[in-house]
Specification:
Layout (H helix, E strand, L loop, with lengths): L24 H10 L4 E5 L2 E4 H17 L7 E5 L4 H12 L3 E4 L6 H11 L3 E5 L3 H8 L6 E5 L9 H9 L10 E3 L19 E6 L9 E5 H14 L9 E4 L6 H14 L2 E4 L5 H11 L8 H9 L13 E4 L6 H11 L2 E7 L6 E4 L13 E2 L4 E5 L14 E6 L6 E2 L3 H7 E2 L2 E10 L5 E6 L4 E2 L5 E2 L1 H9 L4 E11 L3 E10 L5 H9 L10 E4 L13 H9 L2
Parallel strand pairs: 1-11, 3-4, 3-5, 4-8, 5-6, 6-7, 10-11, 12-13, 25-26
Antiparallel strand pairs: 1-2, 8-9, 9-18, 13-14, 14-15, 16-17, 17-20, 19-20, 20-21, 22-23, 24-25
Helix pairs in contact: 1-2, 1-8, 2-3, 4-5, 7-8, 10-11
Length: 547
Amino acid sequence: MERPWYKFYEEGVPKEVDCPKVPLTKFLEESAFKFPNHTACLFFGKQITYSELAKQVSLLAGGLKRLGIKKGSRVSIHLPNCPQFVISFYAVLKLGGIVVQTNPLFVERELTHILNDSGAETIITLDLLYPRITKVKEETSLKNIIVTSIKDFLPFPLSILYPLKAHPPKIKFKAGVKKFSRLLKREEETESVGNPEDIALFQYTGGTTGTSKGVILTHSNLVVNTIQTASWLIDKTPGEEVILAVIPFFHVYGMTTAMNLGIYLGSTLILVPKFETEQVLKLIQKYKPTLFPGVPAIYMALNEHPNVTRYNLKSIKACISGAAPLPTPVKERFESLTGAKLVEGYGLSEASPVTHANPIKGLNKPGSIGIPFPGTDALIVDIETGTHEVSLGEPGELLIRGPQVMKGYWNMEEETEHTIRDGWLYTGDIVKMDEDGYFYIVDRKKELILSASGFNVYPREIEEVLYTHPKIKEAAVVGIPSEERGEVIKAFIVLKESATEEEIKDFCKERLAKYKVPEIIEFKDSLPKSIIGKVLKRVLLEQEKHS
């Protein structure tokens, strides 16, 4: 069926993608064959070529095999962006294992839930995080703890200085506790055993709306979404791109748009374990990345650095921003500093994750998440029943259909049946579409506010108005339950400079219907966020309950 968005595809972007029926590990094998001496990973000055990376993956796969890891084994990767992450990810998949992504910032409760739910018996972690793993070991099925250190892949003299600065704990390597570097010492012949339809990944949802669920993604899901993303980047040259990998790989967005995309294109990955504004500016100037996937909070921080104009950022060609709404002023400022195209996109863990983006050089509509990716269909249905397509321009729930859509949720059959119906993924996001086929996020279904007047209020609409106030840096709007009046609208605001509650309300009154104007405004020093910069509204609501 001809969709309105097809006419806005840039020249060279296909309507469908022709994806090979191969496991994800094929990307690394092919890049190691085509670009053996090209730098695959760059980590604080240390360079690892594609042939070296493929060799390290084979060695670790052999070490894991000796520990009993085989097809179907679940292995948790509990690391920041570093060479060990890339090596571990592809080594587990090479054996036919299933990667279980775990955020290194997770506390014991979150770790215990994911390890138990997934059934992971092996975890690969940092020495700095080892004490946390020992605390949860007895409550989980963990049998193997594999420990590495950031210094293991640092160049001299940083490898010597690192322990003096970081103070990692002393670890006794005994039964059940293995040293990552020792698993790389012995060669053992290993062949990729993955099948395209095998499960490759358990990606646990971020928990921004409640209980974290294990999204089941196959090799085929990840292969196709990587190729879809690559097809969107019309101005790319395999073997020549340099990707600034700031967005964490343990998040599905970073895994696809930085790591897997980089390996597929034979790119150099600049690995950044922790975002620090000035360090990232220095890396851009020194290593000249061409692609820089990220989130609005990252671009905002770079824009606002007092010395940003002293750095040469002109190497960057394209950036796809995801995970949170991209404010227009942030987009415009970053583009003026870099000359790059910064476009907003959209995705979710359940779709590997990318489904929409604005064209890189084509028609770009600020405030829009863009148009569906090649091979991806989208539909908007009524919020109440989810069965009737809404009229053009009307808000409704976004449905996605495409080869990147998950197999389901792990151990949650009922939730899977509710989320995937007749081949369509029900996203829970409320959107509208214009006559050109460009989509706009209105809000999350679960975050709708029922105002005292009986009208539905979309927090995002209010937030977008607040972001245009020159004194406001960040804003989040929620509905506070009220027995007498349904829900009261409250705005949490981080200021750039001093402002009063009345000043903000007057500003809103000029731009919003009366029933949409926040009744309560609370100024805060910062807003709680996930690791990728998504504002955690449930945390704000929990804080509100206990205040």
